[in-house]
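INTERNAL AUDIT FORM
Audit reference: QA-55
Scope: verify that the stored structure record matches its stored sequence.
Auditor: D.O.
Record contents follow.
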Amino acid sequence: MKQILIIDDDIYIGNMLEEVLTRECYRVLRAYSGTEALLLLENAHPDLILLDLMLPGLSGEALLTRIREIPVIVVSAKVEMDNKVALLLGGADDYVTKPFDIRELLARIAVVLRAKTPAKAVLSCGDLRLDTETHLAQAAGKEIRLTRTEYAILKLMMQNPSQVLAKSVLLERISADTPDCTESSLKQHISNLRKKLRDVSGRDYIEAVWGIGFKLAEKS
């Protein structure tokens, strides 16, 4: 599960972001000033930082120069183009202006995390394998041919093997690979995928979590 550090002294915005990110299956850390963030980063290494600029004490601009090897999305009310350009050239991975649309911010977070995650040619969970170049899956040593949507679903689940993925999260994160999948068709695609895996191995690799979504079964 990816971890995101929110650095913002605005309690309302920070609480809103924490609630949304937690619902989207991210772990969240909080810091309310630049100095607090520096102390936190001595012992923590989040996968992404959401950084406000107008912080008490050490400013966001100054803090950015001291962050190493962690992608940063600046989330600020400063709209001047010179500010944006300087920060992007100074190490920020993206810049979102307040007020923002939460769907856009979530999409930008997903893009930055995907770009910073080294791609693996073959994903493996127990005896389940998925070749991300050929799109072929194997269960119990037997090959399975997947549709485009089935591949996208299985790939996302294998990239997050211990995570329960809500239907909304599944739809959002597979949209780039399979834009034709809809909320009404998602359940059928997952049912077809589960059947293909079960037919070659005799057991379920995907389990439904009632009222939440789906995840890889523990035995995988």
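Auditor finding: record pair retrieved intact. The chain has a mean pLDDT of 89.
Action required: none
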